[in-house]
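This part of the workshop introduces the protein records we will be handling. Backbone structure tokens are a discrete shorthand for how the chain folds in space. Once this layout is familiar, the rest of the handout is easier to follow. The record below serves as our worked example for the rest of this section.
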Amino acid sequence: MLRRSAMAWMLRAISLWDRLRLRVISASRPGLRIHPTASTNFAHARYRLGEGARLIIGPGVVCDRIHHGVCFDLEPGARVEILDGAWLRAQVGTVYIQAFAGAEMQIGPEALLNGCHLSAKGRLVLGRRAWVGPGSRVFDSDQHDFDADHPERIEPVEIGDYAWIASDVLIARGVTIGAHSVVGAHSLVTRDIPPHTVAYGTPALPKGRVGDRSRVS
């Protein structure tokens, strides 16, 4: 009984310490807003916010207590919003969220980012309970100019409600993944995937139908 009490006291002390650290972090970054009910583990994330950038972490958002397991890199004027109950899981790899100057990113309620990389130069949106698996990357741009005659292109990306992006998937600019769809591991997605579709391959192509994923946990 004493051992349990000591453990409970230690956990409360750790949580309080992390909460104090979060206050210091938020005070030093005017564009950072973390809801009081979000995980205190965000005290161990890495933050780089340019002038005028805004990072909003909503109610009940969770991350792991891993040093720099979640990294936020927002250039001037960028806006990233993580909605209620999302989970940024870093146990299998770093969750890296990058928003270039003026870009917008929204991560939907109860979404799961599992050791993945999201990058926005224009607009990137994840829907409710969208999952992005380990090693997967989502880009809304070519990232660089190809040559003098072929400049970089930027087109919005949207991953629909209850969609599941498996591990080591690359989603390219301009792609929409329909709601309730599943993209298999090691796929390259260069075209839209319709709702309720399972797709995989390089490039990813529709291979079958997916039912209602709203009750999948």
Remarks:
- The chain has one domain: 2-209.
- Residues 2-27 form the longest helix (26 residues).
